[in-house]
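Hi U.,

Before I forget, here's the chain from the pilot set. I'm dumping it here mostly so it's searchable later in email.
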Amino acid sequence: MLLLLLGCLDHTPIPGAEGAFVAMQADFVGYSTWDSVGVDAAAADDTGHPEGERTVYVNTMPAAEDTSFPIGTIVVKVIPGADIHAMVKRGDGFNADGAPGWEWFELVTATNGEPVIKWRGEEPPAGETYGALPGATEDTGGSMTGDCNTCHAAAAENDFVHAVPLGAE
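Structure:
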């Protein structure tokens, strides 16, 4: 079992899941040194995210000709004083009913300053929320819980990523 787990640490594809990337905690270390995009809080007001300036870090910016983000892309969004959220292009048909290929994460900062995965998956666990879409109510069928897939569906034409445009390199 230990050898199986150690084999997963190098991100080789899982047997039967060609092209998959399963992010490990170590993959988020040093994210604040990656390329970044500042996002104006006023421009993000309609996304349901907590208020405030935010910085979005990307481990590898997409190439100008890319029409989707490559498997292994990691995007980390930091809003000072709020939660740290991330999305990872996992591929392999993951999250097929939401933002195809993307896995969602919440990170916390350990006492040594390194990021720690608090939760991960196709959606936040029960009781975890991030925001709510303006005007969304249970009566209108809107998301009241800040579901990642619901909010990121608005960026479907950009492979479900809001702040980092494809073809921008």
